[in-house]
């Protein structure tokens, strides 16, 4: 089989490389010529464990290629995946679908025969129907079937999530066209039959909503345990034991019950906001999700206040070490990271901030104040600090000796 993946960002690059590993011929398209040239040269623009080796292997074996020419990529493809950005639209929080719609029209005009057009990007309910109208207007002479195949990739473990997923969701239109689209996608995912991965075939609207509902539920679990952590501090309970006790209940599960600075990244913030806006537009508001959004943002803003309180009520003349800047470990992604809220507040409160992150400092520097000193290691960041904040749980921080940290720091906080 042969497919084209429109968009060589995180989702497109990981998905394309993994499909190539399945034995599919994949051509990745991106409008950024510099990115395409970098990929051809073996330079991966994102940090994802194992991705550089996976890309190199499949390029070498001729299954994976990169281009800026959409027509070239679409020619002869059985399916074309849309993996372009759907950021939050300024002003109202709705998903910005302009990239999806533009790419769909370009694919339709470039197509030379029937194909399946699949939205891999996270899109609100109803987007598939809109895409179908766009391609029909652009090419009424061609049978272009639209489907939804949402991704469930976690940054830092994306390759494993693609190769060994909990499920594959495929949404199609009713009728013969939908059956053809489903058949094509089932063929693409056939290697997963060996490990008996469930393939859930639904209407296209259902598939679109599954992704938003799943992300919103996980975001709610994170926010719930963070509020329980605050309560534990007040009453003298251990939130880790509370989390463990809850997670052993099979109805709840252990995942996403780890207290922390609040969720961030490329998915949860924009997807919860888009779901809330969509629900409001349809007269069925999701109050729990709206509250989750508000509580999560408030938690990030309160982080600096906790540091101030721990330092006796003032950070004037104090040095604060911050370990971890990315929104989670095993990624260089700074999108909606708690550090983007906390660090500027520390600086405004008079602190000198010394920060270290194993992968994210290159992306952090243009986003954080110039007053931040970027250290060469965790111990270097702790040197002379009055307080230390562990913000991102990188494994290398777990191995740090508390005694060495205390010796590096000048305070007792």
UniProtKB/TrEMBL annotation:
<dbReference type="Pfam" id="PF03721">
    <property type="entry name" value="UDPG_MGDP_dh_N"/>
</dbReference>
<dbReference type="Pfam" id="PF03720">
    <property type="entry name" value="UDPG_MGDP_dh_C"/>
</dbReference>
<dbReference type="InterPro" id="IPR001732">
    <property type="entry name" value="UDP-Glc/GDP-Man_DH_N"/>
</dbReference>
<feature type="domain" description="UDP-glucose/GDP-mannose dehydrogenase C-terminal">
    <location>
        <begin position="321"/>
        <end position="412"/>
    </location>
</feature>
<dbReference type="GO" id="GO:0016491">
    <property type="term" value="F:oxidoreductase activity"/>
</dbReference>
<dbReference type="InterPro" id="IPR014027">
    <property type="entry name" value="UDP-Glc/GDP-Man_DH_C"/>
</dbReference>
<keyword id="KW-0560">Oxidoreductase</keyword>
<comment type="similarity">
    <text>Belongs to the UDP-glucose/GDP-mannose dehydrogenase family.</text>
</comment>
<keyword id="KW-0520">NAD</keyword>
<dbReference type="InterPro" id="IPR008927">
    <property type="entry name" value="6-PGluconate_DH-like_C_sf"/>
</dbReference>
<protein>
    <recommendedName>
        <fullName>UDP-glucose 6-dehydrogenase</fullName>
        <ecNumber>1.1.1.22</ecNumber>
    </recommendedName>
</protein>
<dbReference type="InterPro" id="IPR036291">
    <property type="entry name" value="NAD(P)-bd_dom_sf"/>
</dbReference>
<dbReference type="InterPro" id="IPR028357">
    <property type="entry name" value="UDPglc_DH_bac"/>
</dbReference>
<comment type="pathway">
    <text>Nucleotide-sugar biosynthesis; UDP-alpha-D-glucuronate biosynthesis; UDP-alpha-D-glucuronate from UDP-alpha-D-glucose: step 1/1.</text>
</comment>
<dbReference type="InterPro" id="IPR036220">
    <property type="entry name" value="UDP-Glc/GDP-Man_DH_C_sf"/>
</dbReference>
<dbReference type="InterPro" id="IPR014026">
    <property type="entry name" value="UDP-Glc/GDP-Man_DH_dimer"/>
</dbReference>
<dbReference type="InterPro" id="IPR017476">
    <property type="entry name" value="UDP-Glc/GDP-Man"/>
</dbReference>
<dbReference type="Pfam" id="PF00984">
    <property type="entry name" value="UDPG_MGDP_dh"/>
</dbReference>
